[in-house]
Amino acid sequence: MTGLSIKTSESLNFYKYICQKIGSEEVVNIRRLAFVIYDIGHRLTIMTSGSKGEGLNLNGSDLDIMCFDRCAQVFESEKEAVFKGTRLPFIMNTEDTPPCFTQLYLLTHHQNQTLVRVSVSLMNMLDKNHLGYAFSSELYKISHLSIAALSSKIHGPCISDEYDQHDFAYCLKCDKWISQAKPWARRPRTAWPSPAVISKIISCGVLFVPIGCKGSINENLEWRISFSVAEKFLIFSFSHTQLLCYAMLKLLLKEIIEKHEDLKGLLCSYFVCRSWKY
């Protein structure tokens, strides 16, 4: 047997071993289908995310659930705003926020009837300043914690259960692809992702999760721009070999880096996973 054939044989054996540990292509597809059916069963008001939503079942993996708030709608600018029943329209303001964060201001023009019908509790989360009514991400998150189980807790932008198995991220949605993210869509590429995947991602818009930039003077009023929907489409477009490499990267972080005393806390899966996908 030549050296090349030995290396090929070793690579195949390693691939089979990783498939046994992480999941074969068929197993991953079955996991994904189960969560897609779960999402559809909730009339697409939620989206399963995180490792399990991506089709992985790694040791210690939790389930992230993005919950789309139907009481509010985000628009990038006032000219794009469309009033939809009792859904409060909010406008992005990124002038004084770090990259990937925004403040959300209530659009009050021609909204008297909507403001009367909308939930009073939502109105209590607005903070009046010289620019208008800013939506407090902190108060929004606390309000969801107050109606969750007694043992629930805040974990970043999410509400987590006592066993850290489920993270619920209550978020707002903008149906259009925002201008800050347009350079990504126009980026020169050779093959991946395909134009069809990019088009599908753009059509889904972006999300806003209730957490500000740590240390910012307006942290309690800032919302992080989330591309969780785009990330899920990108993950689903991976070949199985790409998915295995991605899973091994997550394992490297969890099983080696996080267990090293000098490296613990240096990175988190949020940074590592997004650098891989983008």
Describe this structure in words.
The chain is of the alpha+beta class and 278 residues long. It is globular. Helix 8 packs antiparallel against helix 9 (228-236) and helix 10 (240-257) runs antiparallel to helix 11 (269-277). It has helices at 3-22, 25-41, 50-53, 112-117, 120-123, 137-146, 182-186, 195-203, 228-236, 240-257, 269-277, and strands at residues 46-49, 63-68, 72-75, 88-93, 101-106, 126-129, 132-135, 153-155, 158-160, 166-174, 206-209, 222-226. The longest helix has 20 residues, at 3-22. The protein has a domain at 62-237: Beta Polymerase, domain 2, CATH 3.30.460. The model has no long low-confidence stretch (mean pLDDT 86).
In a few lines, what is going on in this structure?
This protein has 278 residues and is α+β, with helices and mostly antiparallel strands.
